[in-house]
Amino acid sequence: MAQPDDVMRVRDLELRFQGGMHRPPGSTDEVVYVHKDAAFVGRIDAILERVRPRRMVEFGVLDGGSTIYWHARHDPERLVAFDI
Asked: Which of 6, 59, 65, 83 can pair with 32 through a Cys bridge, CB separation 3.0 to 4.6 Å?
């Protein structure tokens, strides 16, 4: 099963996958943290590749890293993200 590298580029942004109990440093205009590790995201990707969703909803955005990743990786027609 393929998984994203721990660091990947999406346009002008560097996405860094970092899961665990501790919050990584704050994201910047150049670096955005995905608060999930690459192996976890890879498992979700395997499901999404089979399902091929046209619309996606994400609850709990924090810094927005995974939202950026889902949009770049799966290119849904619509992606809605909610956070408090």
From this structure: 65
